[in-house]
């Protein structure tokens, strides 16, 4: 289940804690790590009630089906945390929580980030790994997805593959929502995974996949290949997946070709360009509204990819379809 969990009263604390525990246990996580996830889930959910009165939580395991990483997003529309530096100290906590504070949440997580203010409310994101953290290759990348509020499965899918030589991304949106959309999205994901075309040629991969799936229910999709250490990007897209490159204050929206996988064979719209250290890439399905200034408050795009993804998946979520987002940032100093 990939749904937002509403936090409106004390009962939500147990719901979020149990969901985190069950998800980690299902993927065979060690008991100590399951217990640490439960502590973080309890403390962060309590903070939502304490400071904002209500909010919501999203918990995703990835990659699927392995579940080697679990990410949590805690978000609210409250007044923000006025003394953030103090609250991040261990032992400082909301009055009725576990008494551990944001500092302990940070310490128990593999990664932690927070965005808080009177105009934005508070968003806290944490990531956890089952074992040793994956090595970094100069690109910080994360994906999140959430299903239609009335569904339990998600028709949006994404794929992230990173090696020392390249980062490859697929994001696709199966037609409609529910089990049939989920199956359509999985068909595209599997076709990309097993494509005979080179990953460095997203257009060729798109052409092969569209040919293979002609007559199927179908999906819209975007493929990105970033060659390393050259830091050149190649891109192919078909249908309404939005792809943005953020460089400083400039936001470039990449064009797409109308259509869908399942209709006819095509390579989609293709483009290539050089990237620079610090560049940010955002890809999302139409389950999110168009990302304009009202969804991009000052300071947000300088936060971690997980924080950006979690904040936007909450604030721009249409609430009537599945939604997915992938965010990547090149290191300020790229690996050579």
Look up the CATH topology of the largest domain.
Answer: Phosphatase 2c, domain 1
- What is the string of helix and strand elements? EHHEEHHEEEEEHHEEEEEEHE
Helix content: 25-40%
Q: Please state the average pLDDT score.
A: 93
Low-confidence stretches: 94-99
Whole-number tally of structural domains: 2
Shape: globular
The radius of gyration over CA amounts to 20 Å
Oligomer: single chain
Largest beta-sheet characterization: 5 strands, antiparallel
CATH architecture of the largest domain: 4-Layer Sandwich
Instruction: Assess the beta-strand content as a share of residues.
Output: 25-35%
Structural class: alpha+beta
| Number of distinct helices | 7
Q: What's the CATH class of the largest domain, please? A: Alpha Beta
Measured distance between first and last alpha carbons: 40 Å
Mind telling me the CATH superfamily name of the largest domain? PPM-type phosphatase domain
Tally of DSSP β-strands: 15
The spatial strand order of the largest sheet comes to 1-2-3-5-4
Protein name: Anti-sigma regulatory factor (Ser/Thr protein kinase)
Pfam family, one: SpoIIE
Keywords: Kinase, Transferase
GO molecular function: kinase activity
What does this structure look like?
The structure is a single chain. It contains 7 helices and 15 strands. With about 325 residues, the protein is an alpha+beta fold. It folds into 2 domains: about 120 residues, Heat Shock Protein 90 (2-Layer Sandwich); about 190 residues, Phosphatase 2c, domain 1 (4-Layer Sandwich). Helix 1 packs antiparallel against helix 2 and helix 2 packs antiparallel against helix 4.
